[in-house]
Design goal:
heterodimer, A: alpha/beta, D-Maltodextrin-Binding Protein, domain 2, 13 helices, 11 strands, B: mainly alpha, MetI-like fold, two-stranded antiparallel ribbon, 12 helices, 2% strand, globular
């Protein structure tokens, strides 16, 4: 097996080199005159990339002489890229932005640097719910997080459903919406709600079949759900609460709550591959992303919650992101989910998405 | 060197860059993908080098995936038939018209191609969706509970037809333009009615071109991605979106590779079959 793995890496490495070379093109052009170091960050594009520039790259790292170069791609190819570069002494990314499940996969495959806490002093501020063994926050630094909640249209729904079980009520027939690509997350949320444990997938499947029979509506993109709330196509749904905040700010009639049974959390973070070309710059980046000002900037614009205890929120943002004090927030069992993802996705595709 | 030799050399010289480019840009990635499709997939280690046909076995032994392939072929067959049925008369009329508006008609035909297929599909979404134009119109006129076309196979078929029709008509028009109008006049002089002229003279001559237009439409539809994704919704599966699902949700390159090859193989196979199914004299040269 070990030998096969070696071959596999070799094979994929060659194939990715072309793409990696293209992604690393900025790195070949030479640093900006003012910069002493360069940090190559693999990230999503759009608002997230812009907010990284506005809250981390320009205000914090520029002063420290670090030039940040973003290489924009979707998460899946980024993860494949780091896997494929496993055997290279020098990879192309200093920082890769990934969700916790992929962060776990990379950590388990031995691809990630375990951070030296003295070089990331802000790590001590990471809140307790975002600690997870040796993996988090020492290999995977949580950047923002959100809670899987129940969304509803406050204009039409007088008494919103308080739990997943409430969603089965026949009065919501054809009025519940979920995201088609979030199968594994929804199954975990359902498992937590009806089985008391985020990996009780048998119970979750039983529950979801009932929900599907009650006319569950699924959407290809999360943002397709906002107009569906507005048009009355759905009245309730399960989404990351960060989305409800963004929709509120865009004047869509949506409110969110944490289900009574507890909720799964989604954590987006950053990892440093072991073969990062400039680790010192990457360390500075890791510390910067946890700075209170950077965290507050993201909270105000993305609706995700800060991951540190020293980034106090004020005004409307504080109000929108406040969680009930006794809310039961649970992290995924990443190891189990990593192993089961294809199976869970397959079940979701064939049983829920099938007409 | 004789003249034939010089011609051959010139042809080789002219073809070489295109051939090299095609090999590098098309065949090399395909070969790589073919190799991937024989690898093993592991949820935590992703791709593991191997030589196994298990991914192919998985596809052909699972009714779900075969069902998706059948849906893809069914949608494509309907789209191709509709494009030819609508396209042939329109293209023929366009080719034969003496109107001074002819170029305006052609521009009107090409105009939709200036808009990307995703943008056009977004237009269809506005038309089809709940509270959209068709929905409101059906409520106002028929007084029925709105007509929910969004996320149906019908919506996907209409969407793909709208994208493929201009290609079909343009291809057919140039075919009809190439048929000498005097042949029709000759047929008419011998007493053939307009229907018979079209059936007995024009269509046999146009057949090779019709086959090419059909094949073009067929290939475009088999590989449709944006339209089934946006108009069909998450519960409607065709091969293109399924392939992307496998790649993006499971990071399963080997199986995504298999889906790509099955799709390509089916497309090529059925196109070739259509070619063989018609009498030799009607086939494209």
């Amino acid at each position: 097996m070990g030998k096969m793995n070696g071959v596999s890496v070799h094979l994929s490495r060659r194939t990715v080199l072309g793409g990696a070379a293209a992604l690393a093109a900025p790195a070949l052009l030479g640093r900006a005159a003012w910069a002493d170091e360069r940090c190559v960050v693999g990230t999503w594009g759009g608002d997230y990339a812009r907010l990284l520039r506005e809250n981390i790259d320009d205000p914090i790292l520029k002063k420290q002489g670090v030039e940040v170069v973003q290489t924009v791609a979707d998460e899946t190819p980024r993860v494949a890229q780091v896997f494929a570069q496993k055997a290279l002494p020098r990879g192309t990314l200093d920082i890769a932005c990934v969700g916790a499940p992929n962060g776990y996969r990379m950590a388990a495959a031995g691809l990630l640097e375990t951070l030296d806490e003295t070089k990331v002093p802000n790590l001590k501020h990471v809140i307790p719910v975002l600690h997870n063994g040796a993996f988090m926050p020492d290999q995977f630094v949580p950047h923002i997080y959100s809670v899987q909640g129940i969304a509803y249209n406050p204009k039409t729904v007088q008494t919103p459903p308080k739990s997943w079980t409430d969603l089965l009520d026949p009065k919501w027939k054809g009025k519940v919406g979920m995201l088609a690509t979030a199968g594994t997350w929804i199954m975990q949320g359902a498992a937590l709600a009806v089985g008391g444990n985020p990996d009780d997938f048998d119970k979750a499947k039983e529950y979801l079949l009932k929900l599907n029979a009650n006319g569950l509506r699924v959407y290809a993109e999360t943002d397709d759900m906002a107009p569906a709330f507005k048009s009355g196509e759905i009245e309730v749904g399960v989404v990351w609460l960060a989305r409800t905040v963004m929709w509120q700010n865009a004047d869509f009639p949506v409110a969110g709550l944490v289900p009574e049974e507890g909720a799964i959390i989604y954590i987006s973070g950053m990892v440093m591959p072991k073969n990062a070309p400039d680790k010192q710059a990457a360390y500075k980046y890791m510390n910067a992303l946890l700075e209170p000002s950077a965290q507050q900037g993201f909270a105000a614009h993305m609706g995700y919650i800060p991951t540190v205890n020293d980034a106090d929120l004020t005004g409307k943002t504080a109000q929108q992101l406040a969680l009930p004090e006794n809310a039961k927030l649970v992290q995924s069992d990443y190891a189990k989910v990593a192993a089961l993802t294809p199976e869970l996705n397959d079940w979701w595709l064939k049983n829920i998405l099938r007409k | 060197m004789n003249e034939a030799g010089r011609d051959r050399l010139a042809a080789t010289t002219l073809l070489a860059p295109a051939t090299v480019l095609a090999v590098l840009m098309l065949l090399a990635p395909l070969a790589l993908l073919a190799r991937y499709s024989l690898n093993k997939f592991d949820p935590t280690e992703l791709m593991i080098a191997a030589l196994t046909l298990q991914n192919y076995t998985r596809f052909f032994s699972d009714p779900y995936y075969l069902g998706v392939l059948v849906t893809t072929v069914r949608v494509t067959a309907i789209v191709t038939a509709a494009c030819l049925l609508i396209g042939v008369p329109m293209a023929w009329r366009l080719a034969r018209t003496q109107s001074r508006w002819k170029s305006a008609f052609v521009v009107a035909l090409i105009l939709p191609l200036f808009i990307g297929s995703v943008t056009r599909t977004a237009g269809w979404m506005i038309l089809f969706s709940r509270g959209g134009m068709i929905d409101i119109a059906s409520r106002a006129i028929l007084g029925v509970q709105g007509l929910d076309l969004m996320y149906t196979e019908t919506a996907v078929i209409l969407g793909i037809i709208s994208i493929n029709l201009p290609f079909t008509i343009l291809t057919l028009q140039s075919v009809f333009e190439g048929i000498d109008p005097r042949l029709e006049e000759a047929a008419a002089s011998m007493g053939a009615a307009p229907g018979a002229r079209f059936r007995r003279v024009i269509m046999p001559l146009a057949m090779p071109g019709v086959l090419i237009a059909g094949a073009l439409c067929f290939i475009l539809s088999m590989n449709a991605f944006a339209t089934p994704l946006l108009l069909g919704g998450p519960r409607f599966q065709m091969m293109g979106p399924l392939l992307y699902w496998e790649f993006s949700n499971n990071n399963n390159w080997p199986f995504a590779g298999v889906l790509a090859f099955v799709l390509m193989g089916t497309t090529l196979g059925l196109t070739a079959l259509a070619n063989v199914a018609v009498p030799r004299r009607y086939r494209p040269a």
